[in-house]
Amino acid sequence: MVKVYGLGVLYKDVNSATILKAAYDLQSFSFFQRSSVQEFMTFVSRTIVERTQPASRQSVKEGEYMLQVYVRADNLAGVLISDHEYPNRVAHTLITKILDEFSAKVPAASWPTGNETTVDFPLLPQYLAKYQNPREADALTKIQNDLDETKIILHDTIKAVLDRGEKLDDLVEKSNSLSMHSKAFYKTARKTNSCCNF
Amino acid sequence: MDGDKTALVEKIIKDLNVALMKTSQLYAFDIVPVDTNFRNKSPVICLENCLGIESWCVKHVYFYSHTKVMDYNCSKGKWKHQKVFTMDAKRLTELLNVALLINPELTSFWNKRRMLLQQSYLNIMSELIFSGLVLSRKPKCNDAFAYRRWLIGILFKEGVADNFLENIINEELRVCELAADKSPNNYHCWSHRSWLFDLLRSEDKHNNHNTLFIKEYCFSEKWTSRHVSDFSCFHYRQFCIKNLAYINDTFWKALESSIDINLRKLLVRQLVTNLPNNMTVEVSEEELLSYSEENLMNLLLSHSAKNCNCNVNSVSSCRKLEVLSYELSLNNELIEFYKCHETLWYHRRFILHEISAVIYDHFGMVRHNGMLMKNSCKYCSLNDKRQKQAKISQYDSNSIYGSILFSVILNHEKKFIKKRVLEGDNYAGRHEKYMKFVEGLNNVM
């Protein structure tokens, strides 16, 4: 499947990251899971931006998902959550494009204090819908080759991105931003994923 | 189980069934992870036409309903013969509903439902809704698909009105699409979908199944282009391509207009761009476009080496070639865009296999156990027994491998493989080996 689940623009502060704007497509999840899945996507986006150096790109595989992160030198960051089939190159060109448009529209001074309600940037859902089919979107915008030379670092699991000694399970447990419900959901998901289903 | 707990479980079973009865628009069921019953509320949740139960009660409810059903009905061989009485039937349905929603992989329980339906305690339409609900949580449950097939089989036997049939088909397609979307490589769902079309063709109740074939062909094109590592859907695509062989002239035009591509033009373009250099054919693209199907096939494959004088149906083989060459160009694009996907290369194998089958067929040959053999003619059953030696002469194989179409295809493949190898796609080398050793082109490639 080629699918984008979420797109987010974040600001990376000294030791935390805040979401400035995000859009999600969660139709393929069951109704009761959607809110938890969304909380998780937000949580993981923040975690990963916090652990990415400025002016670098990362692609992180986790389970059946792929996280694409780009943190610019000015600490503005973009995250795209997709599945494995989604081409990395398209994902990163899209992030670059979105960040460029975002910085043109929203003044840099408001980034450190902004949040999802104060920031006015309504384009994300449109991009999310359009880039569900990367082949058509790519052909339309013709942005193939203007990906800058920043190297994309690939990681096979989220463990490689976390600081030494950190575990995702512990981070989830400690987090204040996740509801009880979502934590329970995370635990069951862990359990069911551990055995193979055909 | 003590009394308190039994009462609680009975209450949950009742709540769940009430929810099932009350809302006819339910479309999804799920188990919501909640560790403990800290709110002291009913664990049955019904929100926006979705039904859910909290996970803490699943263990108890499932255990209880499963044992009850087994106790009621399975003791000492009563399973098969027992006649169900009205009172029991209602109770039994309630228990079955709960048990199957939680764990649908219980064939005996589905059979119990079949029995209830045959004794008219259940009705087909609500059973279709119920099995759809089961599939919303377990999209790979073959028992549920098999049950649907059984139900639809009954409907077909009873005979249904045309517009009602239309609804049923649309509903099946919708359920299949949801199931395919929820879990990749969903073999059961795609084979269910192709079962439906086989049924329509064999029953021939639905007079315009050709329109549906075309619709499915277009649908599968869109779907496969977005699910590039899901071979089950590519297999369905292959089923759709094969179905196009049955459509007639009027629908052929409809097909071309619905994919909005001039298939002949595409085929000719591919031919012209891949003509080998040493070929002494001097035809321009415009000239080729004006050829009739028969002339085109004759040019591409020269004359057939059949023993009988039956006419070859060049229109149908030409159309097959057009469809396959379109498929090949789609496959090229997909492989170039989504690099390194094994599924796409497997689909390519299918396309080339089919193209060579068209060529062999034109020459009255068939590949059997890796050997080219003479095939008996499809039209006159002239089975030349004199020619016991099924092995073909050098002359025949030369005329096949020397034909223009064959060289064009080989040329196209060689170019493509070379390009992919340069970009570091390991599957390209494997594809070359497949062409050489499985399709038996070792001598010519």
TrEMBL record, chain A:
UniProt keyword Coiled coil present: yes
Subcellular localization: Cytoplasmic vesicle membrane; Golgi apparatus membrane
Gene3D superfamilies assigned: 1.20.5.110, Longin domain
Segments passing through the bilayer: none
All residue ranges annotated as the Longin domain in the record: 9-125
Gene Ontology BP, a term: endoplasmic reticulum to Golgi vesicle-mediated transport
InterPro entries (alphabetical): Longin-like_dom_sf, Longin_dom, R-SNARE_YKT6, V_SNARE_CC
A GO MF label: SNAP receptor activity
Homology family: Belongs to the synaptobrevin family.
Entry protein name: Longin domain-containing protein
Organism whose genome encodes this protein: Leptidea sinapis
From TrEMBL, chain B:
Residues that span the membrane, as ranges: none
Annotated keywords: Prenyltransferase, Repeat, Transferase
Single annotated GO MF: protein prenyltransferase activity
Keyword Transferase: yes
Domain of life per record: Eukaryota
GO cellular component, one term: cytoplasm
Family: Belongs to the protein prenyltransferase subunit alpha family.
Protein's name according to its UniProt entry: Protein prenyltransferase alpha subunit repeat-containing protein 1
Organism for this UniProt entry: Leptidea sinapis
